[in-house]
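Need tokens for this chain, all 595 residues.
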Amino acid sequence: MEFPPTTLPALLQEGLQRFSNGLFTSTKRNGKWVETSVEEYKEKVQNFAYGLYQLGVRPGSKVTIHSENSTEWLICDLAILSLGAANVPIYTTQPGEQIKYILENSESVVHIVSTDEMFAETKPFIKDLDSVSAVVKIFGSADGDEKMFDDILEAGKKLRAEKPELLDELTSKIDPDDVATLIYTSGTTGVPKGVMLTHNNIASNVQASMERLPFEMERFNGEPVLSYLPLSHVFERMITYMYISMAAKIHYIEVIEEVRDDMGHVKPFFMATVPRLLEKIQTGVKVKGQEMTGLKKNLYYWAIYMTEDFDPENPPKGLGAVKRKVADKLIYSKIRELFGGNLHGMVSGGAALSPEVFKFMNALGIICVQGYGLTETSPVITVQTPDSMRIGTSGKPLSNVEVKIADDKEILTRGPHVMKGYYKLPDKTKEVMTDDGWFKTGDVGKLDEDGYLYITDRKKSMFKLSTGKYVAPQHVENMVINSGYIDQVVVVGYQRKFCSALIVPSYDNVKKRLKRDGYTPGDEIHKDEKVIEMIQNEVDKANKELSPWEKVKKFTLLKEPLSIDSGELTPTQKVKRPVINENYKEEIDKMYAEE
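Here are the structure tokens for all 595 residues:
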């Protein structure tokens, strides 16, 4: 289905009209929830837009936002868009050198930053950037030429009183094909590239994605939703635009470590997530049963093991349905309380969700759909719905999206969701586009006879063993990580005879299990023979499900988890394989020393 081209301010203003007076967003800050009404939000958007105009922001200007998720982020965003300028988001975890590159490359005229601490790395070089005419701090204190968010609001309010028609005039002149945002992909390789997404790129994706909601759009009206993925990433940002379009009440958490408590407070109806969080939840639930004894423990694991056979496309009937109903009443309903007791659905994106975790979440009675897309595709290409939940797939293409598989198995897509190009990089843009408008995703996959898309791996992630066999590491990793005792896995083996793995055990769960057996590992837990033996058993289980050339023959346990801060993971928890290969070269070489 084709949607009439539109702009993001037009789309969002239509959504804002659906809100009744009252809560629009709530942001957790310093442990307390700060609420904002829809009227206050609309007022501040207008005032901040006028304030930015006074600072020299004009149609086509670039404005960077370096901030955690918050209502203020949304105020800045819609204010920038309403002027016809482009929002350039920066991840809170990005290092100073990358921020400097983004500011220089985008020629940002205003830099908005959340706090003094977040500005610390950028401050030394900001005055050397000719394009940046002003720095605006949302919180903290102004130093020298820096401006405060509240002062910009106040200045904008005065200009708005003088020129009440100005903003509407500027907004009305925005073309759907104008660039709305410049998103610098963190990527798993190389220097960040600025992806130019137009108003209609994102708006068309929002409209088509709303056709695939697991519930009627009206069901979201007034319901609380929880946000923890960064708004700097197009996945959470597009879904936030969906929330606004459906008049859902958005709650921004403060730190991921408190997400369980936050769920208890918010009692979310829906949320977007990445597989990493769901994997940790599944691991925690599986291991929780170890604390039980007797009949209670047997009953618990009977229900948990039943999730392994659950197929949402073909739910159990007859006796199987009765068993599931019993399991739901006694076990699953109590697990759902961990999510606040009101969580009806979630969408997982950013990386492939393993079939085991997918079955587990849906078996619990929470509709968990998987989507697929990239920053360059605004982002959604395919997504599942409650009536298209085929295991191992990412669903079917959106109604306004075309998908085909190239001769080399690469997934190609075409439609209004495909980016305008990479900023100032015409040659790079040409590399990923065919002459007839198909975007090369860099992912390998297949379409089945019913139109479901299967994604094998990143094209660049696949490697060839010295035996000539090709390995898709993500598939192997998904098999190995389906354990309550394994937290992270990276499979290696390029130009080697066999596959090996770097593994980060779930050490807390490992300790609990060993303690139950009367054993306490030493300080060098990653070298402890009992721990290694325990992980070997888990790897052996996974190997039984893998082809001979995919089996993990050797592994090394890492003491510390892979992290975003170390540069080993992207902000959406994807593994940066070149960084891993470099950081752990010694450990990898040791596994192949006898080769």
